[in-house]
Design goal:
By secondary structure, this protein is an alpha+beta fold. It has 5 helices and 10 strands; from the N terminus they run ααββββββαββββαα. It has a domain of about 130 residues: B-lactam Antibiotic, Isopenicillin N Synthase, Chain (Jelly Rolls), CATH 2.60.120.330.
Length: about 190
């Protein structure tokens, strides 16, 4: 997975107009802090979905996710609609984490997602691994993404501090991004 991580870091650095090693260096990925979460969703006989995992974003750089049964994960589109994610067999779904959004001052978005239990007859198991910067990396909007029309949207802190702010509770991470958000001056 580290090779995938470095490949993604190179590709994203290039799309941003930076040298290939930009994100690798900014996030100190050689010492990146990674966490795995396992989720077990019970069968649900309700035809109208109940919530399996409340809406949230994930911390870190990127988040690969695998599952045993397809269905349940939804991502909020920029228009505000929930889109059901289809993850074919033997496929890894890759999401973006909060700290790429912070570094790029919102250019890359950490997607809001949730899990709905919708008339599924069997257990569903998923595993997400959150690949983050090293714990001592100070993550703030980089100067290249700040200008008069794009003032810094997040305050900076180390990755460790931002996880602590969130009580190291991955599920509650939406609050971590909103807590780092700067108040808008109108
Ligand atoms: O189970 C899923 O599809 C999503 C899990 C998730 O969002 C998470 O573990 O952060
Ligand atoms: Fe998540």
């Amino acid at each position: 997975m580290h090779e995938v991580e470095l490949g993604l870091a190179k590709a994203i650095s290039t799309t941003l107009g930076y040298e290939e090693t930009y994100i690798e260096k900014e996030f100190k990925l050689e010492a990146g802090f990674d966490v795995a979460t396992l989720n077990l969703y019970p069968p649900s006989l309700q035809s109208k979905g109940s919530t399996g995992l409340a809406e949230h974003t994930d911390p870190g750089f990127f988040v690969p996710l695998i599952q045993d049964v397809n269905g349940g994960l939804q991502v909020l589109s920029h228009k505000g609609n929930w889109i059901t994610v289809n993850i074919p067999r033997n496929t890894i779904f890759i999401g973006i984490g909060d700290h790429l959004e912070i570094l790029t001052n919102g250019k890359y978005k950490s997607h809001i997602h949730q899990v709905i239990l919708d008339n599924n007859e069997v257990n569903r198991i998923s595993m997400a691994t959150l690949h983050g910067p090293s714990l001592d990396t100070f993550v703030a909007p980089a100067p290249g993404f700040i200008n008069d029309s794009h003032p810094p949207t997040y305050r900076g802190m180390t990755y460790k501090e931002s996880l602590e702010l969130n009580g190291f509770d991955e599920i509650d991470v939406q609050s971590s991004l909103t807590q780092l958000q700067m108040p808008l001056s109108l």
